[in-house]
Amino acid sequence: MNVLGTLALVFARIGLGAFGGGLATIPFIHYELVVSRAWLSERGFAEVVSLAQMTPGPLAVNAATFVGYRIAGLPGACAATLSVIGAPLLLLVSALFLLSRASGKWRKRVDRVQRALRPAVSGMLFAAFWVVVRPLANDWRLWVMVAGAFLLSRVGFFNRFPQLLLLAAGVAGAMLL
Prior knowledge:
By secondary structure, the protein is mostly helical. Helix content is 81%, strand content 0%.
C-alpha cells in the first residue's frame, strides 16, 4: 500500500477509536505514530500534541493534518484529515439511521453501552495525560508547571479566559525548558 493509503487507513482507525473526544485519542495516536509506525519520536509526538492543542479545532484533526503534511505533503494532510473525519462520520450516520428504526428495547441497550464506556474513557484520558508527560517525567519543572496551570485554572480570570493560561504556559515552557 502506498503512503497516502497507509495514512488514510491509520487515521481512519484513529477516528473510529475516538470515544470520549480528542484527548482520549492521544493513546491511539501515540501507538500508531510512535510505537507501530515510528513516524514520530516521543518528543516529536509531544510537540504534535502541543501544537494540535494550541491550534483551533479538534486535536485528532489537527494532529492528522500536521502528521499527514509531514509524511506526504499536502496530499498526505488531505488524506489524513479526511480519513480522521470521514470514517467516524460515516459510522455515525449509519448508526443514527439504524437507531431511528430501532425499537425501545434496542435504545435501552445502547444507553447501557454508553454508560459502560464512561469508565473506559476516563482511563483513556489518564493514559493520554501519561503519554504526553512521560518523556519529561523526570523533569521537576514540568510538574511545577502542571501544578501551577491547574491552580491558575481555578482562578476566576484564567477560568474565564483559558486561552491566556495556554499562552502563559507556552511562554513559561519556552523560558524554563
